Amino acid sequence: MAALNLKSLAAYLGKTEASAALASTVVDAADAAADAGPLVVFYTNCQGRGLAYWLSKSPEFKRSYPRVRFIAVHDLVDRRAEDFTPAQKALLGACALVVYQPIGAKHGRFATTESGAWALLPQKAKRVGFAYLYDECCFPLYMTRGAVCARGAAAVRAAVARRARAHDETFVEAARAVRASLKRGTADSDLFELRARTADSLANLRRREAPLDVRVADVVEAGGRPASPLFLTQNHPATALLVACADRVLRVLGFSALPRGAYEDAGPNEAGIPGRVFPPCVFDRPHRIVGAAPAPVPEFYLELFDRVVREMCAGD
C-alpha cells in the first residue's frame, strides 16, 4: 500500500482538502467509530503514528482517550502552508491531550510554543513531547539527502583515500579494493566512521529531548537485539524503540506500562510505519544491535557504495 501522506493525497485532492483529510485520519476503525469522549491529537510526523499504534495497546490509554486524530505538522511545514485548516484548528481546540514533536519558533503558527500552535489548545489540555528520532549510523552512504547523509558519503571518500595512500593506489584501485573487502565482510569495522557519527547522533538526541517528557537516548545507546532492532532506517524507529517511547508516555500520564504480551511477539515494524526498510549491515549492526557478528555487506549497500564512488569520480 502506498504511504498515506500529503503528496499522495494532493494528487487526488487539493492541498487544503488533503491536509484536512490527514488531520482527520484515525488509527483504526474503532477510533473512527468513537465520536465521544476525550480526544488525543498526535502533532507529529509518521513516527507519531507508530507511537499511537502502541499506545492503543494500553487499556488505560484507550479508555482515557477513545478518540485519536493526527495533524501531519511536518507536511504543513515542508510545504510552507499559511495556516492550519479549519478542521485542524477544531481538533487542536477540542483535544484533551496532545502528543507532539517539537516544531521551532521560526515556523510561526505551527511552532510548539505558546504563541504558535499551543495558543489553539484548551487551557486544561495536557502535552507530552518526544523528540524526532534518528540514528545517523543507519544511513551511511548517500550523497545529497541532507547534511547527515552527506557526512556518510564523506566518510566513504575518506575510507577510499586512506586505502589509496596506504597502498600507493589510484582512487579507482582503492575503491575496488575497499568494495571487495565489504563484499567479503573483512573491511575495517569502523570503515565509515560510525562510532564517531553515532556518538554525535546520541549527543544530538540527548540535547533535543532534554526539555521533553519522553527520553529514549539511553535506550538507543544500549542497542537492540538481532531479532529486535531499534531502527529500520535512519529515521524509522522499530517496534522496540516505539514501545520504549510508549511506556514513557504512559508513565508521564500515570498509567501502567504496556503489558508484555502486547509486543513480545511483534515484528520489527508491527506499527506499519511507511518507508523502505534497510537490510541490516555489518557497519551499523554493532551500533544498533548488541552482539551482532561480522558478515558480508548486503548487495543493497554495495550498490550505494558504487553510487558514491561514481559520483566522486565524476566530480574529480
Automatic annotation (TrEMBL):
InterPro entries found in the cross-reference section: WcbI
Annotated ranges, domain Polysaccharide biosynthesis enzyme WcbI: 41-257
Domain of life, per lineage: Eukaryota
Name assigned to this protein: Polysaccharide biosynthesis enzyme WcbI domain-containing protein
Organism: Pelagomonas calceolata
